[in-house]
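Our consortium's second objective concerns turning raw sequence data into structural hypotheses that experimental partners can test. To show how far this objective has progressed, the report includes one record in full. It was chosen at random from the queue rather than selected for favorable results. The single chain below, 69 residues long, was entered without modification.
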Amino acid sequence: MQAARKLKQRYEEAHTLEIIAEITEEIQGAHSAKKIWTDALEIYLELGLERQAHSMQEHIDGSEQPGPR
């Protein structure tokens, strides 16, 4: 049961980072949100959540492109 709680906590942490990154992206731009997206990506990969990890990777890749998205 404790392991399940830890997994849920890590998922919630990644999801919270995702929300913070979205807000940061809106206010400061995608480049500023890159570190936050990367942190969320690492957690999603750790948890084996490929779809979420792919979404984070798209945000990271987009933050590396010049100009507005």
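The partners drew two points from this record. The chain has a mean pLDDT of 92. The chain has one domain: 2-63. Both points have been shared with the crystallography group to help prioritize constructs.
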